[in-house]
Amino acid sequence: MKTFTHKTLYLTMLSLFASYSGATLAQEPPSDEDMETISITGVKDLNSLIPIESKSAFGLDKSLVETPRSVTDISSDLIEAYGLRSVDDLVRITPGAFTSSFFGIQGAMDIRGESADNYFRGFRRIANPGAFKTNIRGAKGLEVMRGPVSPLYGNGSVGGQLNYSPKSAKSDATKYFDEATGEIHLTLGTYDQKILAVEGGTPFMLGDKQAGVYIFAEAEDSGSYYDNYEPTNEIVQVALDVDLTDKTLMEFGFQYQTSDAIQVPGWNRVTQDLIDNGTYITGAPVAKNSDNPIGADRLLPQESGFISPFAPYFINSSFSGVGTFCSPGTADNSNYTYNAMLLSCPGVADGIENAYALSNPGIAQIDHKTTFIDDIDFADSTAFTAYLDFTTYLSDDMTWKNQFYYDYMDHTKFQSWGFTADYPGAEAMEFRSSLNFETFHDNATIQHITGISIRNEDLDYNHAYYDETFDFRDIIVGPTPDDRIDWAVDDPYEDATIIYDEDGNPTGIDGTVRRNYNEEQVSTMLNAGLFYIADITLESWSILLGARYDYFDVESEDQAISLLGIPFGDGEVHTDTESAFSYNVSVSYKMESGFVPYATYAESSSLSTNQLGGIIPSSVDNGEYLAESTLAELGIKYSSDDESLYAALAVFDQEKTDRIGQTSALVAVYSEGVEFEARAILNESFSLTATATHIETTEVSDGALAVINGADFAAQNGLEAYQVYGGRIAGNRSTFVGEGVELDRGGLPDNTMSLFLNYNKPLERGRVTASLGFGWADETYTDVLETILLPSYMVWTGSVGYVAENYRILLSVNNLFEEEYYTSADLFDSVVVKPSEGRTGSIMFSYSF
């Protein structure tokens, strides 16, 4: 498909913007006499298409068109109408968003080239590093916020946030109903998809207090387009609202979710021929599995490596037999090259081609259903979130809110390419007290929010990834004992004893040792914050000011030990205290025509953490657990008087420091781009949504882990790809590209766009609905080294339904024309890629009472 240039994208966005607003600008403004007789006849917004308010973006009662931020509002009606299944699907209606594959787990979005934080009712959740799927069907509404987080919601970087409002939040209206209400939803789909959901609420009196309760529950037990992938997911939400007094409201609720969806990276042994023609290189890895009855079906540490006192502790006291970690070479010691860089790759004295060559190599055609998956893989997640709010209306212009928040996650997983993770009982607790009030002056009205927050996090982060290897498995054949890496256990020495010499130094292992965790980071973080927001309205002008002061008290320890019992850390608990200041300034002007131009600048300080959100021990003493980010944004929004059209255009430039990959290396990320979205109700029958994005994201990280594409490495060293696929070739990024080199971030297309048309036809009883649209993404390279080019693609999605008074039926089809496309991986993007699903469909039956 022809690649769109950024100029074409700009023209498309501007022409769409102008076509909707031109008629409004062309008309002369009516006189006062005319205005007295004008009446606006609105068209019903049956899919909650046009966003009205955006209370979540800042905590202010401010319309979305007047909010000087890039915000996309997504209602549950829109989720259902478009057949959205996960956060990955949100990119269809969200500019600036494109989510790479986190091994098939749709837990979080990528916004403006960076992973976004997940929020629940305005409180930041524990990070979800491919742990479990975020269930968007359980949302009453979603807000995708691009740019800096509101000072009200805590410290955060300028990338973006996904704020989740649970369906149980309907309890705020339920207490005023005359009777109980509810719905039952049954979804059946291709590949044995089965989802059952029940929701309902009722008003009741708690003594003489008006109250309401609402419950949502869903269970999924489905197959998948991909062979041998069968995820399950259960979620329960409960919310209770009580009017304690005429002026005080209590809101209590929780969400409980369990999931067992394993990670699936997709295809390995990635070549350009594989992407272009589906040609896969076959062959078996080197035989390493012994007849040891312990772990007979997988490789134990003594089989995948050579445990030795001469191996440094930081490589786990073991020389890997399935991978080499290269360092910069010289004319005297280099044995390979890559991108004209001399390399010294240890552990392959007889040559990589002799250490890693596959046996019986060949080629075969592969389909998209065949992926890197194993029936011994497992992933179990339990997540629990609870809240308790007290809102007191002190006067018509003053509200005091006290909120308590708790978030819990327990997660463990194993993937047989060599990765084990365990996050036992991760907890976050937060208290927030805020005062919202208005003051009135001669020419100005000011809405203020001020308050304090206290947050505590207690996180245990355990990872095992040494000997992690992808290319040694022939995924057409499936897993074998020679390409499964053993999972990590809490006590790897149950059947082994470390041997020591007379001086107490470890010299070897007696018995069979199991896989250990090479990262065991235990951390706590206490954060106290003061915040203030002022929304100043001066006639048509609006000035939005936000500031936050944070105090951090952190504690972290590395408890991991190598296979010979040598600590990875220094045995110390590292502690530190630090303070940080964040602020944002916005100016906007509301024009009589309905346009609202704005400008925003923000500087933010946020935590720089491991994948779970915990403090890294080595970052404490040097203060690198805090990182700064900046944003400059210009935009213009438009909303018609009859609320039939909403459009927004934004140009941004942001810089931030983050952590990348399993090694949590520091990375400087630079993003700039243009975002456009429009939503229009054309008439009684038709409406549409449109988005377009042009974004350029680059990064600098000398210490990031680079796992090199085997076929590319082989070609540059006069070898065949099969000769290196039995192992992993890795090193620091600077080893392969040089130091301080700024590279395009891989897997993120520069240009994306979408267009969806909706149809509603009223009948004598009920109405017929339909939607049809596409999402398009430009071609992009899989990784920063630009080894594999992924083609552009256009995916069509459609639905047709019938809505009656008490029931509705909706048939949805995804990837209508079976477009074959590929998504780069969030990690190891040089060596794995996710093939697209083919056409899938589902039918949903809903009955309300």
Query: Major beta sheet, specifics?
Result: 22 strands, antiparallel, barrel
Going by CATH, the architecture of the largest domain would be: Beta Barrel
CATH topology of the largest domain: Maltoporin, Chain A
Number of helices: 10
Q: Low-confidence parts, pLDDT < 50 over ≥5 residues?
A: 1-41
Sheet-strand content, in percent, reads: over 45%
Gap from first CA to last CA: 48 Å
Structure summary, number of beta strands? 45
Gross morphology = globular
> What is the alpha-carbon Rg in Å?
28 Å
InterPro entries: Beta-barrel_TonB_sf (IPR036942), Plug_dom (IPR012910), Plug_dom_sf (IPR037066), TonB-dep_rcpt-like (IPR039426)
GO molecular function: siderophore uptake transmembrane transporter activity
Subcellular location: Cell outer membrane
Membrane topology: Multi-pass membrane protein
Q: What report would you give on this structure?
A:
This protein is mainly beta and 849 residues long. The protein contains 10 helices and 45 strands. It has a 22-stranded antiparallel β-barrel. A 5-stranded mixed β-sheet has the order 1-6-7-4-5. The chain has a 5-stranded mixed β-sheet with strand order 17-18-16-35-34.
Labels describing this entry:
Maltoporin, Chain A; TonB-dependent receptor; TonB-dep_rcpt-like; 8% helix; cell outer membrane; ion transport; disordered N terminus; 45 strands; five-stranded mixed beta sheet; mainly beta; receptor
